[in-house]
């Protein structure tokens, strides 16, 4: 390394950190230092052990350089507070059930629900479950958050705008807060258990095939001892409150904003099967243009501002890693270090069950278990409520989990058993274990400890190896399948958990690539009856398109991978268009629909008129018309769910006796009638001239901050980003789920990453709408237009590349 660089770094960072930085191969460089043009800021920080620095590049991505491990994770917490303080503070208050203290009594029920789902087990076992450094990382991270919060509370740093709008102050943390919070994680399928019971009660269990296709092929039955009609529609009200985001509203609208609507909740929960997940794939060196592996990942979650994920680079002696994580957690979960790359998507393990109990008529705090009555565990906690005296919260638990609903009239109680209550299942926190692995075996070692969410983890390394492993805490159910609620009397118990070796994996796959998209990817010979992992998966349409494209290209480039992440080809659309080909009609609307869809290329592009008709058709017209014929008693339960479309398409392709005496003719009439009403619907929204119809006129991305209802008009406008015309839909690689009411985008890929494994600076990424949580920062919204048009920014790794792109250099010294 040249002497000029040595002098520059010495001047920037101070002697204590420089020895470590200059000795790190991952940070070596041989170009003149360009930092003179960057904005220079300095800050002293209480709790920092040695001088350090944060280089923020022109896209708002911070790259942290510290002289020791403690300072690195301390500064990750400090920087998260610097950029996302409102977001992480609200995450903590929500997770711990502390909302009513800041925001008033209307949040008291949500607090109670949230506290039901906290981890309440042995904290020593909890910390040990994540690996040897988990507690050390969390302690340092929390100390960094607290250092920033303490300065804000003391007036040494500015109070972010969001706290001024809400009239609150940020809190100090303890390390246990990071892992005890569970309710932000993704498990499944308790809502579907309830929905299946409702369908079974209304129309018989067979009607549920129109709602969701069970995979692998499986026939469920009503568990012995369960009356499906005994499951109340609102049984998951507390679960809904515990897992939803915090909603803010003007005082007159607060109760409505926080109310539980069981129909809406169950519909949205079912839709998450196809909307909350990810795409990822890994390509061997033999199938890329560069001769190096490519790893791509674009997780799909509900869109928000600030973004759910935050991109950061972490560098200290012995650790150099970059990628995206959750801003309130130490480490990163999707990215790479100097040797390996990693990415994740949901692998649909069923990690929760609803239990139904008979209550003792003489004692409502006892439930039948075995041949006797068992006492509920009752916990009393103090709840602070703004403007009121403290309240006493009474929380009840059975041996399986929290009691979420009591049917007093029928002497029944309902509780949720979830892997959340097992050690080591704080969502994504296990990434602090695998992000420093150096090879496949080290990666697998961390995966053995991975708890939640259950994931398809893909892997690549600089030696050219690639792999996939399914990981997550997986209940072993031997005498039931987890598809319906079960009596809690002891007949239906988990028999421990499957080990990592009992879940599928692949190393150096023969086809030279491996892709996942939340689809059913258990191997054909997997012993499903002995290992009932789960039966409800996303439709395979995204995966099918991805694998078709990858299989047809033996020299994939990074540009190809980015194009594939933004591919809007609708495989379900191709299947439905095939059914339309022989049809004709004299009806003007039906004819117009057929004329648009028969030649359609099945691409949900923003400028397509056919895509507008297709999506309106499947979202609001095809399902209700089909179910009116095939399962009228279940139509009101199933038809509102766009997520049922894969199951409905399968039914249309193979019409059976449920369609009537002439199934094929009935199917064709359903297609015509529903398409005609869809065309009329599009015309009512976009005007009578079909030449002006565009999917992007309906399907727009708009990011509205949760606090907008409390802000003044000017600030509310500053808090919002968009609208932006956007292509895609739920079941295409460019995942973009929308509201059925107005087609506005609600979920999809907020973060994308494509890695050139080994030539790390060539890697690309995008976050949306921006990296910063400060609505007055340029990085609050700057990435949204790039994201909307399928563009990326560099994910820089080497010090030389980072320095060349630095917009702000922050020098930090101990106070």
UniProtKB/TrEMBL annotation:
Q: In its UniProt record, which GO terms are filed under biological process?
A: antibiotic biosynthetic process
Binding sites annotated in the UniProt record for Ca(2+): 350, 353
Q: Could you tell me which CDD domains the record lists for this protein?
A: Ntn_PGA_like (cd03747)
Top-rank taxon: Bacteria
| Cofactor requirements of the protein | Ca(2+)
Q: Which residues form the active site?
A: 278
What does the note under cofactor report?
Binds 1 Ca(2+) ion per dimer.
Transmembrane stretches, by residue range? none
* Keywords attached to this entry: Calcium, Hydrolase, Metal-binding, Signal, Zymogen
Q: Where is the signal peptide?
A: 1-28
Q: Which GO terms describe its molecular function?
A: hydrolase activity, acting on carbon-nitrogen (but not peptide) bonds, in linear amides; metal ion binding
Question: What does the similarity note say?
Answer: Belongs to the peptidase S45 family.
The name of this protein is Penicillin acylase family protein
